[in-house]
Amino acid sequence: MSIGQTFLGLLESSPRHGYDLKRAYDERFGRTRPLPYGQVYATLSRLLKSGLVEVDSVEPGEGPERKRYAITEAGVTDVDRWLSHAEKPEPYLQSVLYTKVVLALLTDRPAADLLDTQTAEHLRLMRELTRRKDGGDLAEQLICDHALFHLEADLRWLELTAARLDELAREVRSHG
Amino acid sequence: MAKLLVADGLRKAFGQTPALDGASISVGAGEIVAVMGPSGSGKSTLLHCLAGITQPDAGKVRYEGRKLTEMTDRERSALRRGKFGFVFQFGQLVPELTCLENVALPLRMDRVRRREAERRATEWLERLEVTDVAGKRPGEVSGGQGQRVAVARALVANPRVIFADEPTGALDSLNGERVMRLLTQSARESHAAVVLVTHEARVASYSDREVVVRDGRVRDLTGASRG
Predict the structure, then answer these.
(1) Residue-wise over B32-50: b if at least 16 C-beta within 10 A, else e?
(2) Ranges for the ABC transporter domain (chain B) (predicted)?
(3) The CATH number fitting domain B3-220, selected from 3.30.1490.100, 1.10.10.10, 2.40.50.100, 3.40.50.300
(4) Would A130 disulfide with which of B151, B163, B205, B218, CB 3.0-4.6 Å?
């Protein structure tokens, strides 16, 4: 999953210090795998270099200075592009999709459209696999079936999430 | 693709419960369209309105430019018999007739002579790979065989549109796939359009495109993917 774009999405909802950003990330998306600090700052410096974030303010302290990061216009465009673009359908995609849905809700983007876009992309690939299966031998059919069942499971998740979007929106927004 | 069947702004309520709330859809000649959506979303009601089985409260349905919604019952029945074929989840074959007689039935109703009707019905049983059940009654054949007989019956009179409502709903995966493969293959060979109502994505993947019915409206997902 793209940590950089996830950071951008979190920064779009409000500017944050590196530490707060890590905490927000871990709380929402990294419960089983918290981000190491090294990766947080390496990612932020990459985003700074590419002009997607900027330092909003610097607070002097006893230790190193505390920088607060904010998203730039270019960063918002980047999040926009990422959220509206369907992921390549593949098994175990849920964590990326979940992140996208939460960020869309956090930043007041149409999360239902995002789910529709992804559903369409999954269905497109399923049609392609079904056609491949039709002309294939048994081995080909079984390989396609395996992919089809996984994609179908993703689609069920998409459908269920679409049905629970209002509930999820309330929960996400109440977390601030 | 020339539009064969067009519905515009359909509304239908059952008592206080709205089933369709401004649903619009168009189906091209020979096109296979899957209508998806959760239970109770209105997808079967949409199919019934498109096929002229149910009259919508508002909105129009046109078949080749003719308004179904303004036809008399007799005209609609004639259109259904001559141009449309139907496959439902189950219970559509006449239990007292053999499978061959069931397939020949639409032709017999159109006054085709028995010998000719049975010859054409036999051809369709062959295409659907169920010649071995020709002399059996529907109660004596498996679910998968019964559905293939139903597909043969839907196609025998050379319809322009097949309406299929959850045609594999009562079948296991393997039989469901076989029915879908044969249904879509036969429809393509006959240049018949198919309106396929299903809640299963794997069944829908046999179509040319999918639409989703949500809250009584139709959403075409084709334009949604930018991936």
Answers:
(1) bbbbbbbeebbbbbbbbbb
(2) 5-226
(3) 3.40.50.300
(4) B205
